[in-house]
Amino acid sequence: MTQDWNRFLSVEAKNRHPSVMKTVGGPDIISFGCGMPHSDCFPLKGLSIKYTTPDSNFKKTAIGSNEDDANSKEGASEIYQMCQYMSASGTTYFKKWTHEHIEEFHKPAFRDWDCLIQSGATLSFDQILRMICDPEIDTILAEELTYPCFLESCKPLRLKVFGVKMDADGVDVNDLDMILTNWYEDERTKKYRKPKFYYCMPFGQNPSGITMTIQRKKDLLQICQKHDILVVEDDPYFHLQLDPSAKNVPSLLKFDTDGRVLRIDSFSKMMMPGMRISVVTANNFFVKKLTMMNELSIHSAAAPSQLIVYMLMQEWRQQGFRQWIEYIQANYRRRRDIILDAFDKYLPKSLCSWNKPSSGMFLWIKLRLDKFPKLDRSEDDSEWALELEDLVYDQALKEKIYLTKGHWFMIDDMVMAGFRATYASGEYEDLYEGSRRLGIAIRHVHENLYEK
Amino acid sequence: MTQDWNRFLSVEAKNRHPSVMKTVGGPDIISFGCGMPHSDCFPLKGLSIKYTTPDSNFKKTAIGSNEDDANSKEGASEIYQMCQYMSASGTTYFKKWTHEHIEEFHKPAFRDWDCLIQSGATLSFDQILRMICDPEIDTILAEELTYPCFLESCKPLRLKVFGVKMDADGVDVNDLDMILTNWYEDERTKKYRKPKFYYCMPFGQNPSGITMTIQRKKDLLQICQKHDILVVEDDPYFHLQLDPSAKNVPSLLKFDTDGRVLRIDSFSKMMMPGMRISVVTANNFFVKKLTMMNELSIHSAAAPSQLIVYMLMQEWRQQGFRQWIEYIQANYRRRRDIILDAFDKYLPKSLCSWNKPSSGMFLWIKLRLDKFPKLDRSEDDSEWALELEDLVYDQALKEKIYLTKGHWFMIDDMVMAGFRATYASGEYEDLYEGSRRLGIAIRHVHENLYEK
Known about the structure:
The structure is a homodimer. Chain A is α/β, with parallel strands linked by helices. Chain A is built from twelve helices and 17 strands. At the A-B interface, α1, β2, β3, α2 and α4 of A face α1, β2, β3, α2 and α4 of B. Chains A, B: InterPro entries: Aminotransferase_I/II_large, Class-I_PLP-dep_aminotransf, PyrdxlP-dep_Trfase, PyrdxlP-dep_Trfase_major.
């Protein structure tokens, strides 16, 4: 007998559904879809363990072996710490390194800050959501195109997200100011509780690829101060600054004298996502609460992950780490330049446009809606935009090129049809070939519509 | 200006407080407090990484070195999987091993089961709570003395926990039956929603050390079936079966033909807590929901942890793993026997009693309340019990022996004064010396009360 287990679910669980983000794979399919780092950008190439053996009744040790040229790290205290329970704020050595790293790269303006090691940015924003928002009651502000996993984390908690307009410099602070000023007058917002925070991705925003300028960051903080709201700065692409225009832009932390920024750093894009390490930097009050949440959930990021990253830092030293950052930047810059060159060659500029991201892994392709004939003139413009996006998406898949649909990133329906493309994980020839196929797909849809 | 940040907190976060469990350390203090594994029971003694070097612009590799006798594991696909994002149900190789392990040791009776890798039992029961319970509305049943971290996970969600009586064989199923049968008549329960699950620790229960018998497990499942509730079987001590009486007792999964058991396995006690690995085994429906929660929180346990445990299993093979289990059992059995010998020597049997646990890390010391003169005869019995417990706790600390207070484990006030003592992490001489000090403390409190 198959039971219906739904009767045991919480409202949260009932509102939890599979991700809208689909990954399409298969023979010959080229993917511009998932933002996975390229394997050239992983520094770890082997692992060896020294373990106690059954033959000696676990008194003597042996080595897990595939090669002959490796040596074993056996700083007794680190290995013991890696095996044993650890503090909810992280292992001593890694916590210390992280604190120095935050100080060196972000220079927080607020004095009473601290940081906390967690297991990945997705967990971190889920914990922050639960720390700040009451399910079904609270609301959140975010860029009008934003990261689907963030939206999907809000859904089970029934938190309504309101979109704020963006331009090439980042969030439109006037729009943000207007929304908050008119909150209890505007029909759209007045029945909801005023938001407690604004969620943003300041570098190489996912999906738009936009990097917020210094001036915009200062303006953003001023508006947040005016309306007394917090900022969650989710910043996995900070170290993927590809152009000089991005290179001198600091974190919001540097301008935040109030302590209203909760920053999430991640090791996923600049090192290895498999480590599951993120760092939350915020004022002490929030870090303490999040530490209590760590105690009753993950404890901390897994100790082997903390040790491996720490060992890398010890081996490379500060100078080597800076070289690593330059190395991955050069790697992704090259890939970005290749996809831009390929788009320039293969995409019909009369039918679509795209941006040149100064950091991160993504660029945003927008279809020129006015160049595609609208078949049903009575149809709503935003419905038509979605329909067109679907047509191109499906045709692209037929041409064996996979992209991420723009509508997966929209908070509300928009009169916009677009795609997020990543250059992060594709090989050079695939970046060219994928672009060629995409060009064919867009032209095909366009011609087909005219024939109808 | 110091701000009051409380205005930004959710109700959940406002109800989150530091743990009641205190750890007391210091020079010369012997601890019978924390249930940390002994370092002899950690199989990992060294770690080595092969990493790309700055000098070669990250083309060539080097080894993090402390010794000369190590070899590097470099199964290309495992190392790549360890670096890259992974599936929310775990890495392919570890998921496969785990599935076989569950099948071999627990033999689930329900056909449509699956398992899921998460990062530690504490996270797992937090996720299960959120999957099943609506904050402020749902209720939970648990053993009347239970694990404080579980109670503290319920608190921020405002889930009321009701205690079920226990005896030497585990949960008192008649009491469980009565509570559920009379739920909507009993003054104590009738205003609350009927519980959706019963939470238990079947082996070496924390704090009582009790192991549930086979018959009791069958009876428990029958009652849960009768009232249509689930069972959460939190079982970190399964592999710490110290006596033959525990050795042939299987998991609840083996008798669960309905699929109503959600079992949590942990690698923390039988291997290394620093790995942060737990496994939830349940019917497919719940595993799918929990996998969605993984996707939007931890993704999975960190990949290095999964790889390290997997490498150990490959090196040891099945036979070696079974030897490992016997080795840690022998280790903890020896420690348990020593503390029992020490208690026998040093504790006043006229003033207290204790049990001999057949599995796990803990035993439970009960003060004989009737042997201590009650100073204020008008005082409530349960208040007096707490007061006496405090007196012994404080006196023990003066004698430099630390124990975990019984009241930290009580769901409701009980007319009971007791302590949880662990033999897991103490050295042999400390187990004796700590017991001697405890004996002095108990006698001292007793004499002092008579002098008053």
